Amino acid sequence: MSLAPRAVLVHRRTEYEELLARHGTHGQAAFFLSSRGRSIDEVARRHERTRQALRDVAAAVPLTWRSTRVERADLDRFLFAPEDVVVVVGQDGLVANAAKYLSGQPVVGIDTDPGRNPGVLVRHRCADTAALLRAATADGGTVEALTMVEAVADDTQRLVALNEIYLGPPGHQTARYRLAPDGDGSPGEAQASSGVLVGTGTGATGWLRSLWLERGSTVPLPAPCDPRLLWFVREAWPSPATGTSQVSGQLGRGQGLRLTVESDRIVVFGDGMEADALELTWGQSVRLGISATALRLVV
């Protein structure tokens, strides 16, 4: 017998909750902000809007479904199931945070603060939740398959991301490595830089775009569903032992970029989740390319 769908509500601590965790009480947090010319009132109002949105979304889950909640900090320890429908209640970035732990489950983005969030990935309002949940499980439901990027190390460690993957030194200083197209058989160019960024069309509104603008790149930025990635080397350093001839490019489906570590330690993390990173040491290699898994965003 097949299981009923499970609605997984993904959320994160609000700014107000973070203030309370640091200062202990509402009064102490209010004093801390007021002593710096700021008020806690708007922070508390945003907190209440978020809590109310979570209550409204939870109430919209069909009675025949199962449901649970997971906080952003616990995503790396949560086990998603094939029958899950993931409901992200919060900001656009929270969708990216959840995406790396999914394997094709449909995702519904609910905007808790319209007008404050861009609404690129959290496109819907709380009142739409019931209809969106039905659409997510119906045959022929409309979803967008957003391209994701993956890193696969030579020891089988794997990481995927919706916006971008960063490879570099833990302290964002200087890493040494060799960079080459995957499969061409060459040792690659020896480089020293502050890291390499490989991004998708969804990430083309953030970190990837800033590097693209800085370089004055003539390669068009990909759209979220395009099967294409762009990559840039950050602050490559020319020296007698290191070069700068391969500092940007694009990858299509089936193409890859290979990085071989020549430093004591390089970290690989996606979408800003540095606490959940791969660690590579001297001699290891990692391949970057388009992930076979896409984010299925309910539209």
From TrEMBL:
<dbReference type="InterPro" id="IPR016064">
    <property type="entry name" value="NAD/diacylglycerol_kinase_sf"/>
</dbReference>
<protein>
    <recommendedName>
        <fullName>Inorganic polyphosphate kinase</fullName>
    </recommendedName>
</protein>
<dbReference type="InterPro" id="IPR017438">
    <property type="entry name" value="ATP-NAD_kinase_N"/>
</dbReference>
